Amino acid sequence: MRYADLHCDALTAAAPGTSFLHRTTSQVSLEKLVGGDCLLQCFALFTPPAQDFARSEAVKTAGKRSAAGDGRARNSRSQPDPPGGAGIGAEKSGAGGPVEKISGKEKTGERGETGAPVWRRAQRCLSAFLAAEGELSAAGIRPVLTVENGGVLEGELSRLDALERAGVKLFGFTWNEENELGFPCGRPGGLKPFGKRVAEELLSRGIYPDVSHLSDEGFFEVAEIASAFRVPFAASHSLARSVCPHRRNLTDEQIKAVADGGGLIGVNFVREFIGKAGIFAHVVHLWKTGGEDVLAVGSDFDGTDRPLYAGADEMPRFFEDLARAGLPASVLEKLAFRNALRLLS
């Protein structure tokens, strides 16, 4: 069965100057996408919080100073990873593709050294994605660009221009830490004033807000704004909190809010979010709570070390497992690709 996936981190996992489509260690590669019969794959542009870049730069600077004072150290020590490789956490790693100007002008002077590496990394990811579009399309796979962690804007609304030109269709407000837009799941607080401006701007541009990783309060603020615009929103890689009480999962009220707005919830394969009940229990709960039209896939491949299914080439086994467990064929087809195509076509 063909499938559409709302979220993976293959784009971010690639090292600078390499093609993210041909990494043998990746959970998502061109070979695995073809093997899994992928129809549409969303690739997330992820940039870690600016403070992680600052910490990485501090480590690198200290290493250079040490090497400068000791010639032997300079010859024997390797320098720390470039910005983007440190401080990201177990679920994210690496950097983007080849460096290329996308936005035309980089505002490093306004943000100082902290802001510059964040946007440079984003530009590398944008360049890598654009370079891979042709190869994916030739293989019958539609690539879609998304954003995970709206902190990439660093308070500059104008950066949405570059993201829109690159074809971004889903935009996540936060990752696991507070940023200029709002607060992450498990934290009190919702959207900040800038986050509300971003939500309105996204909806006016035809970019769907993505509430995965966002706080509960922020979720409902996005839902209210999206309702006023009469535009759907999505949770690209989230599961059901009633099945597994993890803060990253959605409450029943949230599931219904996404469904009522005509949006999607992407089922992910992160073991910590699935819990003991198993993936089928989450799929059924999402279906019974939000209806069959809310179901989608949001694997989070390359964003977690031990996904329930090892990679994109194992997607047929996922659908076979759901069919054997009793999921009706019509519902399975909507989960696999029909609902995602409805939103992203």
UniProtKB/TrEMBL annotation:
Ranges annotated as biased composition (Basic and acidic residues): 102-113
Taxonomic classification: Bacteria, Bacillati, Bacillota, Clostridia, Candidatus Scatosoma
Xref: Gene3D superfamilies: Metal-dependent hydrolases
Species of provenance: Candidatus Scatosoma pullistercoris
One example GO MF annotation: metallodipeptidase activity
Biological processes, Gene Ontology terms: proteolysis
Protein name stated in the entry: Membrane dipeptidase
PROSITE patterns from the UniProt entry: RENAL_DIPEPTIDASE_2
InterPro entries named among the record's database cross-references: Metal_Hydrolase, Pept_M19
Region (Disordered): 57-116
